[in-house]
Write a structure and sequence with these properties.
alpha+beta; Purple Acid Phosphatase, chain A, domain 2; OB fold (Dihydrolipoamide Acetyltransferase, E2P); seven-stranded mixed β-sheet; DNA polymerase alpha subunit B; DNA_pol_alpha_bsu; nucleus
Length: 490
Amino acid sequence: MFHKPTGTGLKLKDKLVQPIELYPYEQRQNLTRLASAPLSISKRCLVRPLDHQLTENYRYMFQKIDEKYKVLDDRIEMFSGLVKDHYEIEELFDPLRPTQEAIKTIGRICCDTEGKLNSQSVVLETSRSLGAGCRVSLNLDEVPSFALFPGRVVAVEGINSTGRALNVTNIYENPLLPMPTTLTSELMEYNYGPTKLNGQPMTIVIASGPYTLNTNLQYQPFLDFINKMKTEKPDVLILLGPFVDQDHPLIKSGSLDLTLEDIFVMHISAPLDSFCHTCPGTNVIMVPSAKDIIHSHMAFPQPPLEGSGTLKIPQEVLRLPNPCQFRINEVIFAVSTVDVLFHLSAEEAPRDPKPDRDRMGRLAYHVLEQRSLYPLFPPARGEVNLDLEYHYAIELQVMPDVLILPSRLKFFAKTVEEVVCVNPGHLTKSQTGGTYAKMIILPSNKEEISSNEVKHHVAERATLDVLLRQSTIDLPNSKNPIIPEPVLLP
């Protein structure tokens, strides 16, 4: 026997289900949106930001000089303890005090002139506790090899017989952070779990803006790239700013028919919304840039882009700050869209650098050795509005397995101290197509997993290719390389 339902909704297991609002065909909503998939598609990878990430906007340009100096002083003190423990140094001395014996000391590299740092203009600024924050000139004539830049915290050994200059005989490198480890049970679940990778490789694609040619704001290269990703369906798609570049000629000239927010919604958010519904198994990550004119925050570090407000970024997209550190399954990533490699290259003063480390590897090593995603101080003039009050967001919390530093320098992918360092280049360059990176990480070898906690050894498991028109650049020392199909960018 059937009964006519009463009330405003239907009860299903004591839960009230509201009736669906219907529209005439001519007024139908969300014409191209996929309401539901025939099967629930779970993501094979779990993406989680690390703790202490910058998540909210903050007031900048209010930092006091003494607060800024305290941050710099604390960095010297931190490395003082690390260096003493690592090299078994009993005591560090004030480098300004005259002595006829060799001493060991530590401080921050500075330049005593207005120009670029060179071997004749290097001074060492001490901490308040060690040398009252005073500076001493460094004579580096007896040091055969070094690579210094303003802001680098470094320990040195030498003699200051006059009290005016320290004659340096040795420079100590700071100890590196230990490589991360993961519990064996978690590692096996990530790599071989039936709902996770199930023994299959993990594919990660990394692209960095600008995403349109400098002759127009049509974003055709970005649209072609997204369509390519719809075919490839990577596990993770990492998109780095700038998305709407403040240096674009049409934006600088004001020759716009749309608002900046409308440009972003039309050419970035809309294609991403389509991609997220076409590829529900792909994790999408967005990291802003200091050059993003649609970002309300003009200081570095930056909070994430605004969500579903005026920019209408799909809810499926994980918005992260700049810089950021996050985990994809067991793999630790560190990302900064500020061109720290170019800035370090412009300010570095090297002398006969180590032959086993080329220029790009040396620049990436500075980031790892200083445990900071922007170790340069003072920052590049006119490029970075650095706010040291939130310095914790710039410091490396752990040694990353993968370090992503997009730069205007030549793209590269190389292993530095067991860390896979990547410069994916830019998706567009002026009026031509650019490059992006594709990384494939194989599962850990079951036979090599023995202890309760194991290192990830990503550099040995990864194949990374920077795709440039019809060529690829392979990551050296990769096992079982898998070469992806080259992509012709317009």
